[in-house]
Amino acid sequence: MTARRVRLFAVALRADPARAPSYAALRTALERVLVADVAPHRTEGVPSLVAFPEHTGLLAAFVGARGTAARERAAEGAPAADVLATLALGYSAQFEHYASAWPAISSPGQLLHLALTDTVVRALVEGCADLAAAHGVWLTVGAALPEWAQVRGAHAEVLADPEAGTDYAYRAVAPEVRNRNLVFAPDGALAAVHDKAYLVPLERDRDAGLGLSAVGLDTLTVADLSVGRLATVISKDAWMPDCNDRLEQLGAEVLVQPEAFDRWGEPAREGAAADLWPPDKFQRGGWWMLQQHRGFVANVTPMLVGTIGDLGFDGQPLVAVAAPAGVPDLGLLGQPAGPGWAAVGPWDGLDEPAAALASQTR
Asked: Which of 13, 15, 213, 264 suits 314 as a labelling partner, its CA being 20 to 30 A distant?
């Protein structure tokens, strides 16, 4: 990394559909952290990177009238499967559109993500592009999305959100849905899209899961930005040596590790790892890889927190740096303080978004 000073922010964002009844409400929820937690710590002439969590698109999915019934079911504490089934009913026309376009698809989760394409792209891609430009920051955000294109005419009539008031829609142009990290430039341009290589069982399950598709290691890329050479290791990818080795070979310096982690405060309930303290298990991923790869300078880990029915997320947003740098008195929940932590945010309990901040010079 060329000697430079940068500001790195890892956001903890609550997964609460009630916060996203409209595009404007979701924008307000995301912008709140830029105003309250980022702006006071910025320095003129110093580039800032603000990372929102994995599956922030889950919030965007509930935006608008088509998500009203699902938001109500979530507020009632219904199981997540019931909430998502209710959401699918709100998108029945879009669901049928994609089932007809790709009749070989049998995964309800995959079809639901395709049906949500227009809403999620409007809410997150358009919305985060506007926020990045309005605040002059590099901004990353995670969502499950296919490849998409803007369309007009008959497709737009079926797919477009009627509340958006536009003559265009965003349509999936391929059936595969990826777990993606979108990178926006300070001028609002979509600078990079990084996809997940190693899916967990829930993500790849075609019957009862999300129906997502993985990418090959040969597709992993690094974006050369003013905050450094940026790469993404989405959740499980952060634990995979081959992902990290490839990114180091490509010259990665700053790694964003978007997370939608669960059971942070308790051991796993099943399996051989039942006695492993989750924050300790977590540290064996991105933090450990950062210490092992000489080219890596910082890891920025935003966290999704909160619950949707019986689907829960928790954890601590963090910014890690290569040891022995960092703040020596920082540590994760239930762990002793140690080297390599530049910033560690609170564990769960957040009513509002919050960000862990690090100012890094290398």
From this structure: 213
Looking at residue 145, its amino acid is L
Contacts of 157 (CB under 8 A, 6+ apart): none
* Interval 169-187: pLDDT, tens: 999 999 999 999 999 999 9
Measured distance CA(289)–CA(271) in Å, rounded: 24
Structure tokens at 65: 């009238």
Does the pLDDT at position 149 exceed 50? Answer: yes
Beta strands in 40-101 (DSSP E): 48-51
- How many Å apart are CA 332 and CA 48, to the nearest integer? 24
* Other Cβ atoms within 10 Å of 7 Cβ, number: 21
pLDDT for the residue 179: 98
Per DSSP, the three-state class of 324 is coil
Q: Tokens for 160?
A: 């477009």
Convert the pLDDT of each residue in 3-15 to its tens digit.
578 999 999 999 8
In angstroms, the CA 296 to CA 250 distance is 11
Picking from 248, 299, 219, 243, the residue whose alpha carbon sits closest to that of residue 49 is: 299
Mean pLDDT, range 284-289, rounded to an integer: 94
- With a CB cutoff of 8 Å and minimum separation 6, the contacts of 296 are 244, 248, 252, 253, 255, 289, 290, 322
Asked whether the beta carbons of 226 and 160 are under 8 A apart, the reply is: no
Give CA–CA dist 80/91, Å, rounded. 17
Q: Determine phi and psi for 217, rounding to 5 degrees.
A: -60, -25
Do 204 and 214 form a contact (C-beta atoms < 8 A)? yes
* pLDDT tens for each residue of 44-69: 999 999 999 999 999 999 999 999 99
